[in-house]
Amino acid sequence: MNKTRSRLIEMLHDSSAPMSGPTLATRLNISRAAIWKHIEALRDAGFEIDSGPDGYYVASVTGYNGPAITFGLEASYRIEYADQYESTNDRARELAKMGTTDDVAVVADAQTGGRGRLDRQWSSPSGGIWVSLLLHPHCSPAELPVYTFAAAVAVVRAVQQCGIDVNIKWPNDVLLSRDTPGINPSDGRKIAGILTETAGEADQVSWLIVGIGLNANVDSTALPPEATSLQSVIGAVDRRALLQRLLNSFAELTNPIDLDNIIDAWRTHSTTLNQRVRITTPRETIEGVAVDIQTPGALIVQTNNGIKTIHAGDCEHLRSTEK
Ligand code: BT5
User: Fold this and answer.
1) Whole-model pTM above 0.85?
2) Is 193 in the pocket of ligand 1 (CB under 6 A)?
């Protein structure tokens, strides 16, 4: 969006009262006809700008694009939006390699090559929240799992405000809660996942990408059978407001990083703790009861052969009868 248009929408946002065409024209040092053209372009971008006797004001925002997501966002991420990226994580990586030093949220309406962990395919049809945060934290790679945890907690907090309960499966899945009334048979299905990637030296991270996929307004028939979406549970949601809540919540937890708060919140929302689990890592399969997590993100499992501390792997929740 051009600078004048951004300033115009900022002025309308910051003003507690409607602003007249002549006032806007004077402040922006452009003609009233130019103001009118910018207002029309903003309307096309999904800003419902009404004009009353006292001037223009933003009645609501229906668009899902860079300016609309930026409008009213408290967290200070720069938004880079496209209708389609192959993968927002890949775009964020490109920005990092280009030397981008600010914190950016790369957002797409759809992804053509969305990725999960271990290069698994991530279905990303139009209507989901596909976002990758490019961050530059001053920390060591060992501390990074906590950012994945913070993202999971932020997803839970943002989604809960839609009125449905979700919880976290170690390490990076957000599932619809089994306890949510009236929504069987979707219970326990995956609604969001997180892919964290990084580069740097052994003791210092250069940049970090936290990719979050949240199935918002997508039809669950476009998703794998083990997945579900907000739309199929509660109907279409205000995707822009949901993404803003998610970004604000993540910023609150990580700016500055608040380890104890993140781990405590993760424990509260976890569905893995106290469950019988099977963890598959490249080297072994471990079964036991998940008893705790350890900062910054390892899972502690009580097995028949004692306590195991697991840093990464795929986790399966076992029914208590399953051995
Ligand atoms: C994840 O991997 O859960 C991480 C997903 C991260 C996606 C975001 S979207 C924005 C950013 N850009 C990217 O390219 N990626 C990130 P994992 O735990 O490996 O789970 C992958 C598995 O989840 C797949 O093998 C499927 O079984 C399942 N799956 C695929 N698409 C799904 C979806 N939309 N919802 C739920 N489950 C899905």
Assistant:
1) yes
2) yes
